[in-house]
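INSTRUCTION: Work out how this chain folds

Token vocabulary: learned, describes local backbone geometry

RECORD BEGINS BELOW THIS LINE
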Amino acid sequence: MNQEITEYEDRWLLRPLRHSQVTHIAWGSDNFELLLDPPFRIVAGYSAELSPRSLSRDDPNRHVITHWPTTEVERNLSAPIVAAVFFKVGSLRLGFRNGWNMFVSDRHPDVSVAIYSDDTLLFDRSGIVDQTKYPVVQVDPWTGNRIIAPPWPPKPADLDIDYDSDDINS
């Protein structure tokens, strides 16, 4: 099993979650908790969405989790996870082997979500939180190869740029 988190420009693939399976769902008053094969658990708000077979945001079968009876949700989310994609905008998509998908959308920033490994917070809406147990490996989007060198530093905030100038060198 791959224990690395693959980082792309806009997302992370949490490979350690792949093949995990929901063993129990704890229904709370404000959120629900997916208890997976140890050591993982996912806590999300009730506005998380489920969809059978479609990734489209506008699919007519994509609804908040409370749209379905809890027994149906438990049955639909009992399959192994085949894709765990966490986007840098704070959203996530879990794909299950039976074709169901669970989403926490960036269109609804008030929906909480957190991924834990044992008792350590691994991911929340702000991104990857802890990188000690699962190393993050950056991948070039064009070649698929690992990025070995450090990324270029960002533009310094204190650059004196004259945006009104016609001179491209100023």
